[in-house]
Amino acid sequence: MKTVDEINEKIRKGDVHVVTAEEMKEIVEELGPERAAEEVDVVTTGTFGAMCSSGAFLNFGHSDPPIKMKRVWLNDVEAYAGLAAVDAYIGATRLSETREGYGGAHVIEDLVSGRSVELRAVGYGTDCYPRTEIRTSITIHDLNQAIMFNPRNAYQRYYAATNSSDRAIHTYLGTLLPNYGNVIYCGAGELSPLCNDPEYEAIGIGTRVLLCGGIGYIAWHGTQHSPQQKFGTLALIGDMKQMSRNFMRAAVFHRYGVSLYVGVGVPIPILNERIAKNTGVRDDEIKTLILDYSGGRRDRKAVKEVSYAELKSGRVEIDGREVPASSLSSIYMARKIAEELKALIEKGEFLLTNPVERIPKHMEFRPMKEVREPLVREIMKTEFPWIEEGSSLQDAARAIVKSGVTHIPVIGKDGGLCGIVTAWDISKAVVSGEKDLHKLMTRKVITSSPDEPVSVAAKKIERYNVSALPVVENGKVIGIVASDDISRLVMRK
Amino acid sequence: MKALLKFVPRMADAPLIAEVILETGAKMNIIRGSVDVGGGGEVMVEIPDERVNDVVSSFRSRGVEVTLLERPIEIDWERCIHCGACTSICHVGVFSLDKEGKLVMNAGKCVQCGVCVYSCPTLALRIVK
User: Fold this and answer.
1) Which residues neighbour A347 within 8 Å (Cβ) at sequence distance 6 or greater?
2) CA distance A356 to A434
3) For A123-164, how does the pLDDT look when each residue is reduced to its tens digit (9 = 90+)?
4) Which site among B80, B81, B118 would you substitute to test the A interface, given the most A Cβ atoms closer than 10 Å to its Cβ?
5) Where are the alpha helices (DSSP H) in A269-406?
6) What is the pTM of this model?
7) Quick check: helix, strand or coil at residue A82?
8) What is the largest CA-CA distance in chain B?
9) B121 touches A at CB < 8 Å
């Protein structure tokens, strides 16, 4: 058993033993977890993948006269300005309004590279912030703060993608050739941070990490964090002013959009034998599913389960055929990040931190609660004029005149529907001289049910050219839905 | 060696490629062809390395413009992040990763289909015309 403080003491003295995750596999295999835990103090992990859920908070400072920004653009890419007067959040995937193949990720890369960026904003014009427009040019040095905050980075693992359709499709995982022409996968596998600490035992909120080459921290569990499915994620925060373009890159995905390659290096303190054992994980033990991305729906069909070892071999078998597989994340860069972090720790320039809170091990990733179609139950009238079976023509006419409603259900003693009589039927009776209500009313009534979607009821009203539908549940009339109820629903939207 | 042959419209009626093959006896592989507006066009051929000189002069003597494609595709190594996305997309095997995971390019195999150019996330690839 070791503590983070003891490891930091070793780092300060310069006698810490740091290895990369890849080197650790060999050590655990050779010495076993117990001795590996004694020998090794820190294992460095790395990943370098396209992480759309990334962006940065920027503070521009105040102009004179000052402006409270309503909308703000950086190189024609709009940033979110619904914060204080001169704070904004630039998201990686926001596209330029004028330049193709350029977006928020490119603005972030340009800023990190020290390039100048055009700032344009419009303001509300208030007593304290009278200015309504500004246009200037800035570099990262002109910003008070440039704080990268990525709500979801460093996926533990990710689905691999293929395409069963007969045309090429263009996705956030790149180009997928027709007829299972290729497989594209993501994640660094055995080098990946969360794969080396799957129990979230060594790292947690407050762990110091290397984010795009600068100092960063694990701020929270990431969005869509799904630990039971081994799809854990991290929310990361870091100082953009320390970052280097070598460890991040803007990317363009054909017919999809823009994203940001984010380099993340996470040190894993080897505090005990169990943590050491977990860092011994190999690509053939990390499994994922190949999904068919051709359907365009949320739930994609699983084609088969594969290991990262199979994926990294560059060939996977689908239906007895060898299909080329390639990675969208860079394993080469992930390795460089793990090595960079190792070098920084060895030089005493990077100390470890104790997590202040654990990353949750139980959490659900649910689909969206979508706007449900309204049901007849929600718009039907439950109080309505009706007449009893056996009533006279006069009773029906009286009910119509009294209520102003032109369709009157005829209901039996048991509450069941016998028929419906309308003002039109009564007009016809006047012309024909027929006085028997039973003969006049419509007995084969078009009805609705309380759980029927309103759109289905509306189609019935239109198709059968009726003005209302009695709503029947368990053989009893519980309401009535008329075309004016549906019109009111439409007007409300 | 790959070469790009450019035909002006009036040449399209004559069987020029057949003539050159018969004259030189070189076994050429026709990789792709396209017709431009007006009837001219472009054909990419693979010429056996030892026959390049006589094939090229035979085409040129017939008025065909020949461009030798020593590197049909170029990469900007400063932009490449070695993800290797291109390795599964290229159907002629131009790209592979070495033991360290670094991208290796065998440009000579390229048939200029262009799929890798738009599939590269960092736009590091360019077709040489």
Assistant:
1) none
2) 87
3) 999 999 999 999 999 999 999 999 999 999 999 999 999 999
4) B81
5) 273-278, 308-312, 331-346, 376-379, 393-403
6) 0.80
7) coil
8) 52
9) yes
